[in-house]
Fold this protein.
Amino acid sequence: MSPPGAALDSQADAAALRAAWSNRRGFYGWITEVDHKSIGKRYIVTAFVFLLLAGIEALLMRLQLSRPENGFLDPDLYNQVFTMHGTTMMFLFATPVMEGFGLYFVPLMVGTRNVAFPRLAAFSYWMYLFGGIFLYAGFVTNTGADAGWFAYVPLSGPEFSPGKRVDFWAQMITFTEISALSTAVDLIVTILRMRAPGMSLSRMPLYVWAMLVQSFMIVFAMPAVMLASSMLLADRTVGTHFFNPGETADPLLWQHLFWFFGHPEVYIIFIPALGMISSIIETFARRPVFGYPAMTLSLIATAFMGFGLWAHHMFTTGLPPATEAFFTAASIMIAIPSGVQVFCWLATLWSGDICWSTALRFVLAFFALFVAGGLTGVMIASVPFDTQAHDTFFIVAHFHYVLIGGAVFPLLGAVYYWFPKFTGRLLSERLGRLNFWVTFVGFNLTFFPMHYLGLKGMPRRVYTYTPEMGWGALNLLATCGAAILAMGGLLFLGNVFWSMTSRRTAGNNPWAAATLEWAADSPPEPYSFQELPAVSSREPMWSEAHDLAHVTGLAEDRRQTLVTSTVSARPQHRYSLPGPTLWPLLAALAVSSAFVGSVFRPIWVIYGAILTFFALLGWFWPKDYWE
């Protein structure tokens, strides 16, 4: 029984914490926010806006290809549309939305009150937003990128792509990769040094492991594409010759640099989805995920192998046979850790007490779609087959089965699963089931015919074709599927808006889930946890739901949390976090001035560096929260 006055003390403590952690109201409060939950939600909402734009672009492409010799889009606009679609999906939706979920849920799952560097998280969001606006500002002013989302040289070089279109694309890469690197560093430090006492590495949720692995992959992969895009921009604006074969350079250097990033990028998108699947299956199977050590090692192995097979995108470039053999073997081997995870999930479901939900349906669809995409991936790992299928619609089909089936379907399941934590409300299960089936049918009708189109010889990136090729019927079927898939997206948005306006509340843990984010209120308070939890198992909400230990001794009149040791999560010292500030936005504006200005006048690199220096000076000026 609580001692007399305990409830009053608890209310007073909560009020003190709320005063210390709350943000200012109004527009100024919005632009100065440094709470990980607010920034994570901004990432997610912004990424879904870009997904909507990419979906519109995909529909425009499908309408153009729905019949032979169609004149709906002219060749120039079609080139811009397919480039913007791929760029938006890869750089402005897939990676940022996964990082947004990580920013929101990782601190809650590890039992802390914020990320390690809240200002850096805010800066990363502003850089992401400004990069996306910069790219689309070019698109609406007829300066949209038109050399593909991979921007191969020499097509993207100054000789074959004059003007500023490719410049906008190349500089957008720098925006988004700085954003991704900032978030990755923030999550790595948060996971390794701010876990709840008792949450050793062997007790971390699998989703947290997935975000840790993804963050390390970003740190190693993103600099390659930033270097490549900066070299391309220098070739185009100041006359360097990094990729100019006339000056003894090699255009294949671009492909090596790009795909050293590009293939790990697939797993940067895919690995967080694996963590989402583990969380959903564990909750709705009502038992811990089978084979926790094997699952963890499989995540690490997938990341490690992902850096060793980039050249399977280059089998038609004349690589030495020994090189092709190595990358063929690596491309086939990477299916092994994914297979281990699939079998562990199936064992969990087989031995569990399944509670059916919309979130679980999206996960089960993942099994079918990802396995299909993985099988075609093993096929194109073979050099003879890849030589025939390269740059055909077979590759388009494989790519979308792996990325949409392997990442977007789990992502939609995660939205249905975690929506109560975001908003305190449940999404409609009836609308959710309809949303699932319409999306599943539309996806397969859209992309499965593309396998046959590729085998019949239809190349990628063509804006039209003649009736004699015999591709019209399958293209029309794919376009009908795209329309159905768009209906699934509208049902999803309708479900979100309906749930936000309904009065049906969810409670703090409507799914009776096992991990610590469900110990916080729904939606969480600004301080997340009134008392920081301490754990002694992998499933603290199941084994200790009524006896969860708490950490005491933290100040209630400031933004304070706990730093713990890297391996065993033993408490080490208290850590005071900065409050709301304008400096991350000002720093992002200063860096953006350098990037945007340098597209038109290289001297703006110097001007922007000076502005950035003063912004960082204000950012790091000593404050009273430094101890």
Remarks:
- Confidence is low (pLDDT under 50) at residues 1-8.
- The longest strand covers residues 571-576.
- The radius of gyration is 25 Å.
